[in-house]
């Protein structure tokens, strides 16, 4: 495993997720502290749930720089709020980048703990998606993962790509890059072509009248 590569991935992923959370908090007119908390929860929420499942100390309790990176994200949003808040697609961009990179991190950590690939795919999906779930709950929005958008499905596609490259004998870095790339591509294509999963709804009409 290339430690320096994963470190870069984690920093970028943390920054991207924190910006996506803070940007939405700004739209909701949270103050700076509230926005920081939303950004931090977005960045560390999924990984914290993963680590609890793996029975290990949550990662952010072992290194303070996650707090620092979130602070940097807050400063960036404050400085460029005029552009980031106005452009709706900025949330999609940063959320997609964070999603892809955090799935990679979650999968790699699960594999390092000796779990099989199917567990790693689930842990990767939790790492990538559940920070956004907590973010949406904090800002009183329906979680994105539960909407029609292709979200968790993109994580699964990336995880399968990771597994296939592994089976083909590709390097660990290639597995990680392919996983992130597939997630980003699937998310972008789902928006361009309006892909979505079927909605589970009640089609029965009220015949009481």
N/C terminus separation:
65 Å
- Envelope shape: globular
Please compute the radius of gyration using only Cα atoms: 18 Å
The helical percent reads over 70%
Order of helices and strands: HHHHHHHH
Q: Which band does the percent of strand residues land in?
A: under 5%
Which stretches are poorly predicted, pLDDT < 50 over at least 5 residues?
A: none
* Number of beta strands: 0
Described by strand count, sense and barrel closure, the largest sheet is:
none
Based on secondary structure, the structural category is: mainly alpha
Number of helices: 8
Q: What's the pLDDT, averaged over the residues?
A: 89
Task: Please summarize what this structure is.
The protein is mainly alpha-helical and 209 residues long.
Written account of the structure:
This protein is mostly helical. The chain contains eight helices and no strands. The protein is globular and about 50 Å long.
Keywords:
209 residues; mainly alpha; 8 helices; 71% helix; 0% strand
Outline the secondary-structure elements.
Layout: H1 3-27, H2 32-53, H3 65-79, H4 81-84, H5 89-112, H6 117-138, H7 152-167, H8 172-192
Helix pairs in contact: 1-2, 1-3, 1-5, 2-3, 2-6, 5-6, 5-8, 6-7, 7-8
